[in-house]
Specification:
The protein is α+β, with helices and mostly antiparallel strands. It has 18 helices and four strands. It has a four-stranded mixed sheet with strand order 1-3-4-2.
Length: 359
């Protein structure tokens, strides 16, 4: 376990074994680092501290065993994403999950029930099947056809670990299974903290699709395209959208698209695509829009959802933090431990425990 973590941290830092050895205090050789990574030797306490400092990772990250491995990693990424970017994202996820699983263990929480048991699918053959799968999930989870206020809250309620982390710019999100002793102990969905709320919601829905659909079963439909289709269908159900706009429109105005994106919490580009998928707009009309007034929408979001109201206020994971404060209140962990888990200063944690100072 230690060797795997050390290798991941080194790749995240973009260092060769020789480069890491040169940055170490106390000094070690590249051969020693190779033996650490292969499990043939363990470092002394002083060297362990030096490795953490040189790689800018905590000793908990290097030594903890809550997360043995991340399985089934599915990245939502740019085509030019590097191995270093993927390693950095994986390290961010492992660090967050180590703390998450640690607090669940302290509170002796039971593992969640598989919320996807009745809707998982090995493959989908058509775009209509993808939409049907999204509607089926809404039905199983009793969501109706209304807009979903918070994807974060929904997924956390279904037992998924939701993490908003400092991912590399070229990675928007990922989904994975968390393994310990060869067994799956959790499922996680991760989104970048740098994304706007529209992208976060779509990425969460996209990564949710990876938890449900394993392949398309149709060479004509690429897996990532299918995941995007599911995300659009889950966030903007066809029946609901048709009631909003009517069927077979020759044109949908800019004003309507902006209203709809704020209603459902998706980007203007995603809404325009969804209008075409449902058949409200013809494919030629969608193509014309992206070639003219909507040309910049994939890069620059028009009239973004902002402030601390509506979707922007709700789209934040809260369960991990709530569990930490519960453990503090039950005196199962100290304020120092809480500060470490929350990545906050001890002073900030102590103020949250006792409240603001009395005047």
């Amino acid at each position: 376990m230690f060797g795997q973590r050390l290798r991941l941290a080194r790749k995240r830092a973009g260092l060769s074994m020789q480069s890491l050895a040169q940055q170490m205090t106390p000094q070690v050789t590249a051969q020693a680092i190779s033996k650490y990574e292969s499990g043939k030797m363990m470092p002394s306490s002083a060297v362990l501290v030096g490795l953490g400092k040189a790689l800018d990772v905590s000793l908990d990250f290097l030594m903890s065993a809550q997360v043995e491995a991340l399985d089934g990693l599915e990245f939502r990424k740019h085509s030019r994403t590097s191995a270093r970017d993927r390693a950095k994202a994986e390290a961010v996820v492992i660090d967050s999950l180590e703390r998450y699983l640690a607090i669940e263990e302290i509170l002796e929480l039971s593992p969640p029930v598989d919320a996807f048991r009745d809707v998982r699918s090995d493959s989908v053959a058509t775009e209509a099947d993808i939409d049907d799968k999204a509607d089926a999930l809404r039905n199983v989870w009793q969501l109706g056809m209304d807009p979903i206020p918070s994807l974060c809250a929904l997924l956390e309620d279904k037992g998924i670990k939701v993490i908003v982390g400092d991912l590399p710019d070229r990675i928007n999100g990922l989904a994975c299974d968390v393994l310990r002793e060869g067994k799956r102990v959790a499922e996680a969905v991760v989104v970048s903290e740098h994304a706007n709320v529209e992208r976060k919601r779509f990425t969460l829905a996209h990564e949710l699709a990876h938890r449900i659909i394993h392949s398309t079963g149709n060479p004509a439909i690429k897996l990532e395209v299918a995941m995007n289709r599911f995300a659009g269908a889950f966030l903007v159900p066809a029946k609901s959208l048709l009631e909003e706009t009517g069927a077979a429109r020759r044109r949908v105005t800019y004003h309507e698209i902006i209203r709809l994106k704020h209603t459902y919490g998706v980007s203007a580009a995603a809404m325009l695509m969804r209008l075409g998928q449902v058949g409200i707009l013809r494919p030629a009309s969608v193509q014309h829009a992206f070639a003219t007034f909507a040309r910049s929408w994939r890069k620059d979001e028009p009239e973004p959802i902002g402030g601390r109201r509506g979707f922007a206020a709700f789209e934040k994971p809260r369960r991990f933090e709530q569990l930490v404060w519960r453990a503090v209140g039950e005196e199962l962990i100290s304020p120092v431990r809480a500060a470490t888990l929350l990545n906050q200063s001890l002073a900030a944690v102590e103020q949250q425990i006792s409240g603001p100072p009395h005047q």
